[in-house]
Design a protein that fits this description.
200 residues, mainly alpha, binds fe (ii) ion
């Protein structure tokens, strides 16, 4: 039996790495999409959704920061709650980004670009106390909810039902739910002794 060392490699079998070229669609532009919506409507919806996307990505990341950095007696339930909300905000990020692409637009994606666009105030790198963490989350949710309501009204006026439905059914309802679940942790209720007045 003869031993042979394989040496032949066809060039097309190797990955062609290091390639660069001009981008094929500029951020802020829209390509034609046959979805029976005017270009101006698609452009306006895509621009609005990109602002919402930047703020939702930031809110999502704020939840992961707090998931990691939370402390104190409520560590365990908040650690889990923050991650649940992170996952649900991640789903919203995907829905919003893909809606922008469906409209013919270009979704904002990378963190440096998101940081330049977002309206959510930047938190410090270090850890903060639970009430501060939750207050930051509620502030971010309200920014998202305020713009989502405005955008939903504009999309309805323009006949962009798909965007309106995404904003109302997914973005607004999910964020309202998150505000409730996070906000109840800032109610200063008694843990052992009831302090309300007995009525009987
Ligand atoms: Fe984790």
């Amino acid at each position: 039996m003869t031993k042979s060392t394989p040496t032949k490699v066809v060039r097309s079998a190797a990955p062609l790495t290091g390639q660069r070229a001009h981008e094929i669609q500029a951020f802020g532009s829209v390509v034609p999409m046959p979805i029976a919506l005017a270009e101006a409507t698609r452009r306006e919806s895509a621009a609005s959704l990109n602002q919402l996307l930047a703020d939702t990505i930031t809110l999502r990341d704020l939840y992961k920061k707090h998931h990691w950095q939370v402390s104190g007696p409520t560590f365990y339930p908040l650690h889990l709650l923050f991650d649940k909300h992170f996952n649900e905000q991640s789903e919203l990020v995907d829905l919003i980004a893909e809606r922008i692409m469906m409209l013919g637009g270009v979704s904002i994606a990378m963190s440096a670009d998101v940081a330049e666009m977002t309206l959510v105030p930047r938190p410090p790198r270090g850890r903060e106390e639970v009430p501060v963490q939750i207050s930051r989350l509620l502030q971010a949710h309200e920014i998202v909810l305020k713009e989502a309501r405005t955008m939903a009204g504009q999309a309805a006026e323009e006949g962009d039902d798909g965007t309106n439905d995404l904003l109302v059914s997914s973005v607004i309802r999910t964020n309202e739910m998150h505000v409730w679940f996070a906000g109840e942790h800032l109610v200063d209720g008694p843990l052992v002794h009831a302090d309300g007045q007995a009525t009987e």
